[in-house]
Amino acid sequence: QVLITIAAAFGVGTALQNSGAATVIAASLVEATREWGPIAAIAVIYLLGSIMTELITNNAAAVLMFPFCLETARLYQASPLPFL
Length: 84
What we know:
This protein is mainly alpha-helical.
């Protein structure tokens, strides 16, 4: 069951990136945290990742969050490393 969850997460992660959903979600996060800057966006990403790891496996959560984190960093014109 764990392997199925991780495999499905890869498909959903790719779909998030290819469909543009990651861009829409990241743009919403950037808009909501623009006043406080990228540190606030990192805090929100951390919180979302923590919640996701309680619901699904750590690997699946990481796969789902990855495109969203990269897009948020791109929109902030920052290095993606702190967002990952």
